[in-house]
Specification:
The complex is a heterodimer of chains A (about 110) and B (about 110). Chain A is mainly beta and about 110 residues long. Chain A has no helices and eleven strands. Chain B is mainly β and about 110 residues long. The chains are: A mainly beta (about 110), B mainly beta (about 110).
């Protein structure tokens, strides 16, 4: 079946570095994408979203890039901090179509001081 | 912080027991969801509801059942728990027309 996946299961960076977490999706009908952060023992927390009519969206220290041509989504975290250590999931759906989010496999980000 | 609550936070029970995992939200969201997640793995949708008296099965086959009698409450029940049900169960809600989900902290279930 179609699903959302991540390229790397783990990513280790040094504090202060920029982090890039990637995600490939296969459902070309999806037009809404969300990145979630899940800390140990907690539920996923919304980070940032993007609609397919955009290529880039910026938040506080985070940027999401969408490349519809190759069905690729990435999350960039600037000046990564130890508090950014968590599992990051991308999720996709068809906006307002009444379909539930489909989550990909997570990437575990480890930030060392 | 999202106002969605799950209880219990942790549950250890024996095989064959009936259990109910509670989920409540105070945001007035129409849509509610149950996801199952194994450690470090992706979330799998097992049940969802788009409003009172509406329940649907998700992508992942589950032996659990749900009910939605009140907007704010979406409990999940396992009639006879088995070790294969050991997992984390996450409840979420969203406003109609908005797919951004707010998650509870989850219930970690262990069936011995």
């Amino acid at each position: 079946g179609e699903s959302v996946g991540l390229h790397l299961p783990t990513l280790s960076v040094q504090e202060g570095d920029n982090s890039i977490i990637n995600c490939a999706y296969s459902n070309s009908a999806s037009d809404y994408f969300i990145w979630y952060k899940q800390e140990s023992g907690k539920g996923p927390q919304f980070i940032i979203d993007i609609r397919s009519n955009m290529d880039k969206r910026q938040g506080q220290r985070v940027t999401v890039l969408l490349n519809k041509t190759v069905k690729h989504l990435s999350l960039q975290i600037a000046a990564t901090q130890p508090g950014d250590s968590a599992v990051y999931f991308c999720a996709e759906t068809k906006y307002q179509a009444g379909t539930a989010l489909i989550f990909g496999k997570g990437t575990t980000l480890s930030v060392s001081s | 912080e999202a106002d969605i609550y799950q209880t219990p936070r942790y549950l250890v029970i024996g095989t064959g027991k009936k259990i109910t995992l509670e989920c409540s939200q105070t945001m007035g969201h129409d849509k509610m969801y149950w996801y199952q997640q194994d450690p470090g793995m992706e979330l799998h949708l097992i049940h969802y509801s788009y409003g009172v008296n509406s329940t649907e099965k998700g992508d992942l086959s589950s032996e659990s059942t749900v009910s939605r009698i009140r907007t704010e409450h979406f409990p999940l029940t396992l009639e006879s728990a088995r070790p294969s049900h050991t997992s984390q169960y996450l409840c979420a809600s969203s406003r109609s027309g908005n797919e951004k989900l707010f998650f509870g902290s989850g219930t970690q279930l262990s069936v011995l």
